[in-house]
Write a structure and sequence with these properties.
GO terms for molecular function: delta(3)-delta(2)-enoyl-CoA isomerase activity. By secondary structure, this protein is α/β, with parallel strands linked by helices. Helices cover 50% and strands 16% of the residues. It has one domain: 2-enoyl-CoA Hydratase, Chain A, domain 1. Strand 2 and strand 3 form a beta hairpin. Helix 2 runs parallel beside helix 3 and helix 3 packs across helix 10.
């Protein structure tokens, strides 16, 4: 069932909020009827890893929020430890070509829709946010992070190269020099470090405070005509989106070739074994 139909048919009211799932329960969406803000909560335990199904549903959510002329979106996590651990390694380990192409296309589409969303977006980063999780956060216009967590594009630690549009997103968030150092070393920033370089905009003591700060940011646009805001955002971000759109198919093939290389597969296998050992040790 399309999210738009869910909005119209599901009327479970809790205070002034409407709550509904996005169909697969990988994402929970609530809309505040008083201000029109939508809170999208990632809910794929244990670490909100981004697989084909998650990214497809995320694209559907963003499409329907745009269609319903959302006044703003807050992106957060149901976990109190992880915002998103990034791309699901199992999508890249011993990849099946057709599935991988669909997966990577859905990742590209999710970035295009989030990075270029017509409505204002805020990430409430209430847990660790490496790799693809960092990309989601950076693709939002504003970032509020809780203490004692880390964020960054650490792909090089796994022997993977961050795609150009990952890099451009970081360059549009922090300085080019800081981006170069962060990407080549696979650096993960602690909360205070992330604030210092501009990777995040605010720090909150807990999730409730972060959500309040997120609404305060969205309220800044109350008196700004939406069309003027949306066009301005397009002028700022449109060139990067157009660049990816021109090269989507080529980039999918190049990424599959890179991921399929024996050395990359060995690195992914080692990482998966490490995660399995950690899980068994608990």
């Amino acid at each position: 069932m399309a999210l738009a139909r869910n909005i119209l048919r599901t009327r479970t009211l809790v205070g002034s909020f409407r709550h509904y799932s996005s169909g697969t329960k990988l994402l929970d969406v609530s809309v505040n009827d008083e201000n029109g803000f939508a809170t999208v909560t990632m809910n794929r335990p244990p670490v909100n890893s981004l697989n084909l199904e998650f990214l497809t549903e995320f694209c559907n959510v963003l499409t329907d929020l745009d269609r319903n002329k959302s006044r703003g979106m807050i992106l957060t996590s149901s976990s109190n430890k992880v915002f998103s651990a990034g791309l699901d390694i199992l999508e890249m380990y011993k990849p099946q070509p057709e599935r991988f192409k669909a997966f990577w296309n859905s990742l590209q589409e999710a970035w295009i829709k989030l990075y270029g969303a017509s409505f204002p977006t805020v990430a409430v980063i209430n847990g660790h946010s490496p790799a693809g999780g960092c990309l989601l956060a950076m693709s939002c216009e504003y970032r509020i992070m809780l203490n004692k967590f880390t964020i960054g594009l650490n792909e090089t630690q796994l022997g993977i190269v961050a795609p150009p549009w990952f890099i451009k997103t970081m360059q549009n968030t922090i300085s080019k020099r800081d981006t170069e150092l962060a990407l080549t070393t696979g650096r993960l920033f602690k909360t205070e470090e992330a604030l210092k370089v501009g990777l995040i905009d605010e720090i909150a003591s807990d999730k409730a405070q972060a959500l309040s700060q997120a609404e305060a940011f969205l309220n800044r646009f109350e008196m700004i005509p939406p069309i003027a805001r949306a066009y301005t955002k397009t002028y700022l971000r449109g060139a990067d989106i157009q660049e990816l759109q021109k090269n989507r198919e080529k980039e999918v093939g190049a990424t599959l070739s890179l991921v399929a290389q024996p050395k990359v597969q060995q690195g992914l296998e080692f990482y998966l074994a490490m995660l399995k050992n950690k899980k068994e040790a608990k």
